[in-house]
Amino acid sequence: MTFSQSVKNEIFKSVRNVKSCCATSFLTAVLKSMGTLTLEHAGYSFVAESDNRDFLALCALLAREHLKTDSQLTSYRTSKGTEMFSCKFPASLGEKLGLVTREEGMLNFADVRTLLPNLSCCRRAFMQGLFVSCGSVVIPQTEQLTDNAKAKYHLELRFTDPEFANAVAESYSLAQFRQMPRKNHTVLYLKDSERIADFLVYVNATRAKLDLENVIITRSMRNDMNRQNNCEVANIEKTVAASAKQLKAIEVLRSGGAFDSLPDNLKEIALLREASPEATLEEIAAQLHVSKSGANHRFAKLAELAEKQRKTK
Asked: What confidence score (pLDDT) does residue 206 get?
């Protein structure tokens, strides 16, 4: 099961026991997002199709219990063999939801702005209906957390009606959706992991929100570890480079015959470096019982004498 489907399953459970006003808002969002108004010999009807039977069965249940409207749920197979489900509602449901109005026997679509509810509970149910019908969300999988190119967070709502998308973006401005066109659709989307987490809480997908937080925490810990490892690698490289320069200076002093005449403190640190080429400056200083700056000063003096030795040749 994908993360997106797990979010939708949580929403399905949450919606089963909603109030009638919220059931109306949920069904309005669903039928506006994915329903089609069709004309048959028996008259107009709204049809919603999905590969998820439980979703359409839930819509049928809400319509029957809260709006006293029956529906017909059927299944069929596509040319590729995929099982799909279709739920047909009478046009009267669209009128009850405010999706259409009837004038002289003809149905006309309502202004999309009139579909957006005002009550906070209904606004939540409306967004739940939008997500289960036209939404999806992707978060990084555990194996992707070390690959920044793949570790993406993305939540989107996809609309065929740009006017409806604009109305939703304006009504739910606090979510701070970003908007873009994609082929024949308008997409409202979120990329920020914290905003996606807030959205999941809003639509009552709290278990999914916890899963997302675990990913965020794990990713943060791995990033910290990577930064620490990179820092350690950089320090090792600096130590190796510094040691190579120091050993080169000592070699110059030896080849020029100046090594034996070095002061005892310089000779001591030179011998220690030759014996421990991989040791850090801190480790050299500790063995000599001097400060790090004191050890660094001695190496600087060796480098200075070596440079003088080169110039006298």
From this structure: 83
Res 26: pLDDT: 97
Q: Is 138 exposed, middle or buried (0-12, 13-18, 19+ CB in 10 A)?
A: middle
The 10 Å Cβ neighbour count of residue 282 is 12
Handedness of CA 168, 169, 175, 179 (dihedral sign): positive
pLDDT, block means (10 residues), the chain with 313 residues: 90 92 96 87 84 94 95 91 93 90 72 92 96 92 53 90 95 94 93 90 86 72 70 77 87 85 88 87 88 89 85 70
Number of other CB atoms surrounding residue 115 within 10 Å: 21
Give the Cα separation of 30 and 9 in Å (integer).
15
Alpha-carbon gap, residue 208 to 271, rounded angstroms: 62
DSSP 162-183: HHHHHHHHHHTGGG--EEEEET
Strand order in the sheet with 72-77: 36-40, 43-50, 83-90, 72-77
Dihedral of CA atoms 139, 143, 147, 153 in degrees, nearest 10, equals 0
For tokens 């005002």, the residue is 118
Which are the contacts of 77, defined by CB distance < 8 A and separation ≥ 6? Answer: 83, 84
